[in-house]
Please model this.
Amino acid sequence: MREPNDHLRTARENVPSRDVPGVPMSRQELADQVNAHLLESTGRVHELDDNYIGKLERGVIRWPQSSYREALRAVLGVGSDREIGFVNTRRLAAAAKPPAATAATEPDVKRQEFLRAAFVGVGALTSPSALLEMLSPLRSSDAPQRVGSGDVEQVRGAAELLVSWGHSHGGAGVREAAYAQLRWFAQLLNARSSADVRVEVHEAVGLLGHATAHMAFDACAYDEARQTFRFALACSEEVQSWHLRAKVLSSLARQEIWRGNPDEGLTWAELALVRADRLTGSERAMLHTARARALAKMGRYDETLRAVGAADDAFGHAEPSHDPPWMSYYDAAQHAGDTGHALFDLSIQGHSTDAADRLKTAIDGHTAEYARSRAMSQTKLASLTMATGDPHEAAQVGLVAVDDAGRLHSRRAAMDLAELRDYAGRHRGLAEVGELRHRLTATLT
Model:
């Protein structure tokens, strides 16, 4: 049984109606005021209605997206999500459990159906509908006939949850559950909706596709990831979402660079920068760091430094309040880590750079929710120090990296550990390095 959100209902009823003196604010009034707040704060028209507020009060939706929560707090005059009954009770760990246990905790997103679903690999995709042709519906009755803001919110919530899980735990462990969610929510693309909701649902499903593709990338399932990234790209192109397009193209670039195809990665990054005037400072910084990483892999020293400089300049003009929600991860720590990874390759090639300082900044700045990024920067710093600096110091840094990365479900993080073991092999005669290599072997095994 869903638990009603009495905190939200009470908070609404404690606010007097502007339209009818002497009675509480109605659900529709609350929706109208939230829409007005969102228009003022985001510049975008939203279509929340009394039905959506009813879903919140009945507990159908327990964790709205962050902009909706902020607007509700502002309109109702409260200082925290808990005061109006919003608690993020969803956990991807539950999604990885047997279907019966998961379905009991997530009835409104049909988690049991998700876990039964086996995602079938798809070929090259040119439009969102192409994926739908490959993904047969679970049952005809499962596909919604019409979608609204509440449905869009569910997709966004699923995407946010996957992104958060990937940052803190890695993507390899829950990849199949992620694809099952994408399989079901992709059906929303063919449902009827208003023009505004059509844009929102394509963007939300595209964001979920991107998050799912990144899970596959983290598991080194490269072909699967590439196909799904292209699905997300098609969603962004369908509704001309330049911001989502930039994010997906950045991820396509990074995967190709990671796979040893820096030339193709450079092409994707530069494609995303064709209309850089439409992007925020954070997005331009993200794309210039991707260019820098590709150029460094190609040994193009001067161009790499110029790309890092362009990234630094763009990040200096970043205004987080102008960024789309999915760019919240790109803070000073992320920027330092990304540019540090690019300069790592130049340092290994014998050039003098500030890669170590940037990696240290990333390690110090990443919070626990970005455990994967912190662990990978820690591992890179250990490899860099092992290759170009004091192996005793590198061993100490490496032992911390093993502890951090060893807790993740990320094949990319494991590949970085294997690289560190190779660099440590040059100093295998040192006791501290021998201990590090032993720990690395045990962890990788």
